[in-house]
Amino acid sequence: MRESGFPAGLPAGSPPGSPGTRSGNRVGSPRDLDGFIFDLDGCIWTGEDLVPGAREVIDRLRDLGKRVGFLTNNSTQSARKVATRLRRMGIPAAAGMVVVSADLAGPYLASRHGHGKVLVIGSPALRRSILRAGHTLVSWREVLEEGRIPDMVTAGMDVGFHYRKLTAAAVAVARGAFFYACNVDPRLPLEGGRFLPGTGSIARAIAVAAGADPAIIGKPEPPCFLEALRRLGTPPARTAMVGDSPRSDIAGGRRAGLFTILLDAGGAGMGPGSGSSGPGSGTGTGQAEGEVIPHLRVQGMDELLAWISVPAHPRI
User: How far is CA 106 from CA 129, 136, 181, in A?
Assistant: First the structure.
């Protein structure tokens, strides 16, 4: 999912393999890759529309014997529902191939703090994840009307977000509750260039009121990438992360040691003047301060299909 806002990527001059540098993963061609992990919102689909060429890319990768998985920051649906949606769009998928931030939330909080009381600002899918992991839910009404302060506050996409929820979450965090967000993507892209405010917009409102920023459960943090790799069964150096967000997909993928491919539908593609090197190239020039640079930049799924179909360096 493309976004602008927080958190910023690592600055220029970061260590090899981290965002903000062209060094690290040394893939020379698609033959050096065994697996591909795809972002969903803005990469495979926008709203209810399938991104042109996405199905063809997935089909081609599978024809080549590559393993394919999906990783999304969207916290409104379970992996099972996401897999059903992929199949409805003509892309075969099982729930085990899909990693969603909502499913990760409950186990992640338990791994950090044990079982506790959690105020969830988010979807039913997120609340179910919290309950399945053994936590107890605290409602915003209990915080405001009974003074119950949870151990943790977790924010996800919440289409019913309102001022009293904001107040309860901010009060809880200000009084010591650990603060987590499924992601900090400000927007959820829809078809026709439209968008909805995303989890990042909600998390930012809570953070400003509470005076504390959240820890992130989903991209760009490593745990979700490591879980996707575990399910795919491929090593980071032989796995690609494909997404449209430099600060989420690309920064996080680089930090986890993956080969990163930026789907830049509004950019200049792989051709001359794209500002991107070919796969496996060394440090380039013209990098802006704080810019998160992918190993490979493609203008759309058609360019990605051409790259995976011809095992050679793209023209630069």
Answer: 5, 11, 12
Gap between the Cα atoms of 53 and 50, Å rounded: 8
Range 257-272 burial, b when 16+ CB lie within 10 A, else e: bbbbbbbbbeeebbee
Asked, for residue 87, whether it belongs to a domain, the answer is no
Q: Total domain count for the chain? A: 2
Q: What pLDDT is stored for residue 73 in this prediction? A: 92
User: Strand runs (DSSP E) across 51-97, as ranges?
Assistant: 67-72
Average pLDDT over residues 157-167: 97
- The residue with tokens 């997404």 is 243
Q: Where in the sequence numbering do the catalytic residues fall? A: 39, 41
- How far from chain centre, in Å, is Cα 208? 23
Residue with tokens 């970061």: 14
Both tokens assigned to 118? 């959690």
Against a cut of 0.85, is the pTM above it? no
- Structural domain including 187 reads 111-216
Look up residue 238 and give its DSSP letter.
G
Q: Are residues 210 and 273 in the same domain?
A: no
Strand pairing class (178-181; 152-155)? parallel
Contact 229, 103 (CB under 8 A): no
Degrees, nearest 5: CA angle 197-38-293: 80
137 within some domain = yes
